[in-house]
Recover the amino acids of this structure.
């Protein structure tokens, strides 16, 4: 694993895909980038899940994949190089560093999750639990900033009061992070409650008084037309889109949203091309356009729920031929790769044999000369 220092990232004036559990896998990240996202966060990956993963190249898809046993930890392609940020779930400074270094070769930066309120995250002392454990958060951030060799950022939620939030932010900024994302809700608030954009103004002022690093606003930014409004109200440098991108990844388009069918087809194509897990693909598609209650009661939604294979999903969107052609090409690439590997192994064995033979001949000659 290389241990060089990554270049800094410009986090200012950016539209960013938020980290979303099970949503922010590779096909969605690539689709968001195509539609105009500047940076993409991975889904939250827990440190222990990452540590020990083995890096592999997939010749069928062209992706770099990290596997732990039979489980895929993380995958990426050249298309998101320099733009994909690892969102790390952690409660331990040493484990955080080990995890970051494991994926360092293929991520542009690491972001510590201090905002997720979900049980699996909080019960392990991760996510929003770190908001009430600032000493541990400081250890984690400091260790990463000093030793990871790549940009480090942090994503938080609002605390009970603005003053408490400002105190936490002061500590975070002083660790040397390169940017701060603030989800403008408290940890007990859900998406049904309006994000408190106005509260971010004072936090931005605090950040700027300590270090000139970008502040990223998250919460109730649904599409491109919301971006400027959010920045004007909050004084944030950049915006992060979550549910809006989940419902329709074309939320990043300056020209406006594309129809649901168009976006799903583009997503499905990427999922097939990357051999994305069928279960994950289905989950993401079912999560799209769900702000529309008519959609979730539609026959199409029911058909998606009942689909049992990736091909069945493709059939629903007239992509069965695309699926068959893509899979055939992938299988052919694997066959070609296997043949090439056999050829290379044979060549290597011959070369090693020749070396041994040459060494033996040299030894015999030396003995004869004696």
């Amino acid at each position: 694993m290389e241990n060089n220092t990554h270049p800094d990232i410009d986090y200012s004036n950016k539209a960013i895909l938020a980290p979303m559990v099970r949503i922010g896998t590779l096909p969605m990240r690539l689709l968001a980038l195509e539609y105009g996202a500047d940076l993409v966060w991975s889904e939250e990956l827990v440190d222990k899940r990452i540590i020990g993963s083995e890096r592999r190249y997939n010749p069928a898809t062209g992706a770099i994949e990290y596997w732990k046993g039979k489980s895929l930890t993380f995958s990426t392609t050249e298309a998101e190089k320099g733009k994909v940020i690892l969102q790390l779930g952690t409660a331990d400074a040493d484990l955080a560093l080990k995890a970051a270094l494991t994926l360092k070769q293929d991520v542009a930066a690491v972001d510590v999750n201090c905002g997720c309120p979900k049980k699996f995250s909080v019960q392990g002392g991760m996510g929003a639990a770190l908001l009430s454990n600032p000493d541990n958060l400081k250890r984690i951030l400091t260790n990463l900033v000093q030793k990871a060799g790549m940009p480090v950022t942090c994503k938080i939620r609002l605390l009970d009061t603005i003053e408490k939030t400002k105190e936490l932010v002061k500590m975070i900024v002083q660790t040397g992070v390169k940017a701060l994302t603030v989800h403008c809700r408290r940890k007990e608030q859900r998406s049904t409650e309006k994000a408190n954009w106005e509260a971010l103004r004072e936090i931005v002022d605090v950040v700027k008084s300590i270090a000139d690093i970008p502040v990223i606003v998250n919460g109730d930014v649904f599409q491109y037309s919301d971006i400027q409004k959010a920045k004007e109200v909050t004084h944030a440098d950049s915006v992060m889109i979550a549910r809006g991108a989940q419902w329709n990844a074309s939320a990043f388009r300056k020209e406006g949203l594309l129809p649901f069918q168009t976006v799903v087809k583009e997503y499905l194509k990427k999922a097939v091309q990357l051999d994305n897990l069928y279960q994950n693909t289905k989950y993401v598609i079912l999560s799209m356009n769900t702000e529309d209650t008519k959609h979730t009661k539609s026959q199409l939604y029911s058909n998606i729920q009942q689909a049992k294979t990736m091909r069945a999903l493709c059939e629903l969107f007239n992509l069965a031929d695309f699926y068959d052609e893509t899979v055939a090409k992938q299988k052919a690439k694997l066959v070609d790769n296997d043949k090439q590997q056999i050829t290379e192994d044979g060549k290597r064995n011959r070369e090693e044999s020749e070396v041994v033979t040459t060494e033996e001949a040299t030894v015999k000659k030396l003995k004869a000369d004696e």
